[in-house]
Amino acid sequence: MTISPLRLALFLLVVGLLTWCAFEYQGKQLVAARADLVGVTADLHTEREAARLAGEQLAARDQLDTQHTQELNSARSQINALQLAVADGRYRLRIKAICPAVPGASGTSGLADAGSAELAADARSDYFTLREQLALSRQMILGLQDYIRQVVQRTPAQP
After folding, report:
1. In a domain, 70, yes or no
2. How many domains does the chain have?
3. What is the structure's pLDDT at 121?
4. What is the pTM of this model?
5. Radius of gyration of the chain (CA)
6. Could you tell me if residue 76 is inside a domain?
7. Most buried residue among 17, 19, 64, 129 by CB atoms closer than 10 A?
């Protein structure tokens, strides 16, 4: 059985047309895949940059936290040493005060012989608590100011 040349030509034309359609479809798929790849690559680059910036921010924050925590611990140890020295009697807490003369008082009333003004025993613990709270507040404020200056203000605006 022989195939007529017209049928052979028609068969080859149909096969060629199908092959061309298949290649065209695959070409469009390839273009779409390349476009997706470019988009994903750009997204990956953006995410890597964001991760790098976040890592730098965390490192800067941790460094600031360590620095201010060490300063706070140093201040607390100084306060504790002062408190122990006052308790041992090596130091005394004194208040800068004057005792003004009362008008109309006759003569001296013995104030010249009085000792210097000093905190009462029950007020001493309050004094050291206030000093510690002051040191804590100071370090917290300085730490937040440094964080804003060194981390937040250097961060590029987020889209």
Report:
1. yes
2. 1
3. 73
4. 0.58
5. 42
6. yes
7. 64
Is residue 95 within 8 A of residue 120, CB to CB? The reply is no
Res 112 pLDDT > 70: no
Q: Give the other-Cβ count within 10 Å of 70's Cβ.
A: 11
CA atoms within 13 A on the CB side of 83: 16
Structure tokens at 119: 């905190």
Structural domain range at position 86: 52-100+115-159
pLDDT, one tens digit per residue, over 83-99 is 999 889 898 877 766 55
Residue that the structure tokens 């925590």 belong to: 69
| Confidence at residue 158, expressed as pLDDT on a 0 to 100 scale | 55
Residue 110 within a domain: no
Residue 46 lies in a domain: no
Angle between the N-to-C axes of helices 121-147 and 5-88, in degrees from 0 to 180, rounded to the nearest 10: 150
Question: What proportion of the chain, given as a percentage, has pLDDT over 90?
Answer: 54
Mean pLDDT, the chain, as a whole number?
84
Compute the 3-state secondary structure of the chain and give helix, strand, coil in percent, each to the nearest 5: 75, 0, 25
